[in-house]
Amino acid sequence: MAAIRPFSGLRGRGYGRSRTPARQPDPVPLSASVVDCGVYVDGERLPGKWAHGDAIAEARARDNAFVWIGLHEPNSEQIQGVADTFGLHELAVEDAVHAHQRPKLDRYEDSLFMVLKTVRYIAHESPTTANEIVETGELMAFLGKDFIVTVRHGQHSGLARLRRELDNDPERLRQGPSSVLHAIADTVVDHYLDVSERIEHDVDELEDEVFAPRSLVSAEQIYLMKREVLELRRAVLPLATPLRRLAEGYSRLVPDDVRSYFRDVDDHLTTVSERIGSANELLTTLVDATVAKISLQQNVDMRKITAWAAMFAVPTAIAGIYGMNFQYMPELQWRYGYPAVLIGILLICVMLFRIFRRNHWL
């Protein structure tokens, strides 16, 4: 009797082999997304570099101190350590990681979460040839009693310059982390003012081009400009409600001394909104004017085509009649019949040309 061998048919296909788990990528440390972390006591920044845990411990061991930590495009793993240390709400943390949020202000138990849209004006030679004029980014801020955490998305929304200015103004920072939030909002709205002013200049230049004789500006280019204005509008208009809430005492985290500054920022935002509204209305008018010019030009072209067709119809009709090859036709046997017909065609065409020219069809 033959010995029974163990079944091994699956081994050739790799079923009997031991599998080693795939190597997971090493997590990116939090320091890769931290732009800066500082501890401020009585408005003065303490020297040295701080980890976020040591920074908040140092601030809570002192009076009138807070921490400002800035992050740039962190992922969910990188920001989780900061969220646990500062007690940030998980929903706000999720919004800060995934971005693509509308400007808003959310209040949680002991913190505020604010989203702002940053904008940058892209320089170009002419608004009639530019493909992009406004570039947007996002800036989030977590505000607590003794901390402010800023998270930014995009390459143009850096706060390094603002931090240096505040570091040189300890009197302003003595008001606490809410003063940093005001400085951020004020800086963002100032950029709105600058961008809206430049867009106004572009719209004025576009208006001059549209109403210039023999203008080559197309309706598509005006629609492109209108799209850029609407993108700026989506960044500006939703911010009005958060700023108004901060100015009206929406949270105790913003003291009365700082609320008055938010009113000033809200006034500047109103100016930007008015500029955007005016630019949008003017672009709508330019679109209508461009369409009217196109319709008028088409009518002019159609009249010219009709006039030339009428003049060409004369020799065509005469040539068609004499091309019938009938035997008994007028002047067929006349010696000067052929030049007489040519002269008659020419005279009729000249007469039609003068009539159409007098009526501004040509």
UniProtKB/TrEMBL annotation:
It holds the Pfam family CorA. The chain crosses the membrane at residues 305-324, 336-356. Keywords: Cell membrane, Ion transport, Magnesium, Membrane, Transmembrane, Transmembrane helix, Transport. It is a multi-pass membrane protein. It is found in: Cell membrane; Membrane. It comes from the Bacteria. CDD domains: MtCorA-like. Residues 1-28 are annotated as: Disordered. Mediates influx of magnesium ions. Belongs to the CorA metal ion transporter (MIT) (TC 1.A.35) family. This is Magnesium transport protein CorA. The gene is corA.
